[in-house]
Amino acid sequence: MIAAAGEDDSLGKDNDLLWHLPDDFKRFKRLTSGHKIIMGRKTFESFPKPLPNRVHIIITRDRNYQVNCDDCLVVHSLEEAIDLIVDEEAYIIGGGEIYKQGKKYADSIELTRVHGRFNADTFFPSIDQENWELVAEEYHPTDEKHSYDFTYLTYKRKLKESNKFARPSF
């Protein structure tokens, strides 16, 4: 999973981001380019156009939903989306409900923690430290292009002792 969330796990409001962080956008592009990205319909519709060099897997309950885009696939559940991932890296990119459902399938979380609390209507699920280990951290201060300071956090799923040879399917 990949996301940017405030200290209160805020993601967005009215289907829009709460901040503008150009360096985080660059990191998102670098990490997700060339991979499949899984998202809900509202997240997809928040883009001005499909993101280049990525296959978009769009989840919607609307059985009649169609997208006129060569690199877009429409499915009707997260499980259907995950079935389209075969021996490859993919990213769940939102929104809040898709993150909540996707947490059990993810083996890593790339989280940009935006240092602030925001008025939001969509939230990232909390990260249970018993199941996730912080393996990398990089701080970015406020500057002329960034109104908020933030920290890139990389989490890896901890394997339970009884399941140490199992590899998450995603």
Automatic annotation (TrEMBL):
Residues 1-157 form the DHFR domain. It catalyses: (6S)-5,6,7,8-tetrahydrofolate + NADP(+) = 7,8-dihydrofolate + NADPH + H(+). The keyword Lyase does not apply. One of its GO terms (molecular function) is NADP+ binding. CDD domains: DHFR (cd00209). GO terms for cellular component: cytosol. Its EC number is 1.5.1.3. SUPFAM superfamilies: Dihydrofolate reductase-like. Gene3D superfamilies: Dihydrofolate Reductase, subunit A. InterPro entries: DHFR, DHFR-like_dom_sf, DHFR_dom. The keyword Iron does not apply. Belongs to the dihydrofolate reductase family. This is Dihydrofolate reductase.
